[in-house]
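Newbie here. two chains, one complex. Structure please?
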Amino acid sequence: MLSHLPEYTQIAMLAVIGVLVIATVIQFLLSVKNPEKDYRELRLRVTSWWWMIGLLFIFLAISTNAAIVFFGFISFLAFKEFLSIVPTRQADRRVVFWAYVAIPLQYYWVATGWYGMFIIFIPVYMFLFIPMRMVLKGETDGFIKAAGILNWALMLTVFSVSHIAYLLVLPEKNALAGGIGLVLYLLFMTQFNDVSQYVWGKMLGKHKIIPRVSPNKTWEGFLGGLFTITLVAGFVAPLLTPLTRIEGFIAGVIISASGFIGDVVISSVKRDLRIKDSGQLIPGHGGILDRMDSLLYTAPLFFHYLYYLHY
Amino acid sequence: MPRALKILFFSLIVRPIVLVVLGLNIRDRHKLPVTGPAIIIANHNSHLDAMVLMSLYPLSMIHKVRPVAAADYFLANRIKAWFSLNVIGIIPLSRQGGVNRDEMFAACHAALDKGDILILFPEGTRGEPEQAVKPKKGLYYLVKDRTDTAIIPVVIHGLGRALPRGEALLVPFNCDVVVGDPLPPVASSDALIAVLTETYARLSQHCLTRTTLK
């Protein structure tokens, strides 16, 4: 199934599946060793990882367009989840409908490689269109908040996420990895950063960074994650991306630091709404925004760093 | 034949819409009754309310789950009546006064005697989007002599945004379904309304979706 993909991409995918196998074995051994403990949450988490990575790999392997549709669908789920937890006005139902229509359009620009349109469609055209469509309805109570929420939701869940898909249509600069290599690099550095910040924080964490938003985030966890990801990103970069090793180190810093910011931005949203999870879509993880929070920041920032240096 | 239609309709149309276009946050799903006779009483804001609740049941038993629906609305013309009775399997209920209560609830009792699970909206109308209306007293007269029937309260939130009354355009939104414990027996219709109002308020706290600007 994977044999038509570039060599390093295949190796990266197999490595990820290897990590999942190890996680599954550990989880199995833990529940055998301590039968009295409840590992339901851990089991759900690992099973969900199999689903998420399985679906991602299948769509990446089918074709570029299939993968673009897949990321478009993720944008749809994330946008819907965002608008469901934040308040929206009943009067704006039709405006929200038009905002949904922006999703297939944005991914169409991606599929055709129309960079100019991809980069301005939501920040310019949708930004101006949404308030205009709201005016036609004529409801002015709560107008400012409602316009802000809709534009913010589109920027985070559609504009940001579509940068992942655009990596697939960039001209090939590393024949051994291709566009899929870029996507894998971004996704795994982002998720691995979440994990390593968590592990470093658990081991050494003392000094809280922003206790009011996220009481479990510590300087030790943040810096430990930054250190780990910088190293790993530097050494993996020449394999999966056109970046040199030095450029890869900097990519690691960007991904690690901005991943942290994405995480706490979505945490602040949830704090404001007084909810713990944004949904129940992914068992053991919560909603799709809970899983994608870091990616909302890392995707556009990594993309434009790469784009500036090599395109 | 109607059973096959119902299974087709729910597996090919309702379930995909509920799973993909809507998306559910379900709390305490295991509290839904799996055997009748039972009555699910839910708040009402959208035609989707009954569809969502029915979609939570396996297709093998979906013919046992039957919404109680207003006869004046759902039997208003022949196409609507055929669809409501044969595909959805509603139990029509007269909302006009003048009929005596035993006659009014005869079909409900017959279904409960068969072991069906009824879905009932005690507010009696979908009302304004996402706003609760005081429950009507009819429910009490339906259940007061039925000691065999569990009454399960359910709060649904968010569907009044996806498809409110008077709108034909379905806009995707996630919605919450919070299932409560069976209601205790009560001595009067006022007591039932009080218990119900309190229960709905408590269950609503578990909703993730928000519909009003603070």
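Moderator note: Chain A touches chain B through 27 residues (CB under 8 Å). The two ends of chain A are 30 Å apart (CA to CA). Thread marked as resolved.
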